[in-house]
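Hi U.,

Before I forget, here's the chain from the pilot set. I'm dumping it here mostly so it's searchable later in email.
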Amino acid sequence: MASIPSVRSLSKLALGGAQVLLGGGQGVLGSTPVTCSSPQLSCHNTTVVSNLCCFNAPGGQLLQTQFWDTDPVTGPTDSWTIHGLWPDHCDGTYDASCDSSRAYTNISAILKSFGATTLLSDMGTYWKDYQGNDETFWQHEWGKHGTCISTLEPSCYTNHKATEEVVDFFQKTVDLFKALPSYTWLAAAGITPSTTTTYTTSQIQSALSAKRSGVTVTLGCSSSALNEIWYHYDVRGSVQSGEFVPANPDGTKSTCPSTGIKYLPKSGSGGGGGGTTTVPTSGTPAPTGTPFSGKGYLNVNSGGSQKGCIISAGTWYTSGTCASFTATVSGSGFTLTSSKGKCGVVSGVLTCGSSVSTATAFTNSDSKLAAGGNAAWSADSVASGSTQVSVYAGTEKSNALEIVWQSI
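Structure:
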């Protein structure tokens, strides 16, 4: 490969403090040359780098891009989906379709031939085409973008096996996507899909910057509705095994307005969905059936009166539609599930969804929800309006709560 005579200032891009060393999944298959012992960070070289197996160029900034498709609904209702992994030049431009000889049209077969069945399953869940043509979509992303990543060239492998770089491209993209849970990060900041509530660019950027050490992202909107997020990285070393360092966007690309951004729900998603408010307004309800059995609401009592309820992600909410929960007997207690999935106490926080690996066995204490035998819960602040608040097990936070069952 030829050298890239690129000289770029170290101040070209602002680096985030967080660094991503991706793992999990089935791992990459190739081994880059041993000369990658002291790789430079892409987009930050001040002299020519000749070994493009250890340095991504000219596509030095890697973008992990995600979709939020609501019409038609594409992918899980509580997750964004993958668009791709794109190598941009460090000035906002990019190459495309760099090697027609490797524009493969049998992506699934390639992955299966290397035993990457878990990867293929993940792609079938999260790397979706809105028209249902997943295989064609994957072919397009590899041919247009994957073939332009210098460190994925076959010559960059020791004892290269034909097409193994394809597996590395898709595995790395999926691993990176899993490290960027956009839905969860936005929800943690009270930004949830809604047909009525709108958000500002500043709110969305702040929610995501809080998880990535202050760097920003590129936001994409269609008719003022948020539908795409691009996360930018510079890479120290190869895409296969290098260090992904969060970076600011390599150009002004966002297409969202500063205010009035809609974040529309996917069909069937819960939380902040607008519509008719069904939050009960009376005091602590008298259960109409056996406490914590069948379906019910989790109403929140705070300061001696009822104030809203727990919604499907496990957060406290005082506006919109209460989520219904299903209580299922488990040993001497019960488990809870919502439309998001299993519920549990994760790092001290009441949570429902894919991040809950094992459902918590809750118990009933005078019709109040108890975890670990303790019916006390608390929050940093009082939920109001469209603001959601995380609920913690125990009383260490400043606002004491009770969570009361109401059968439905």
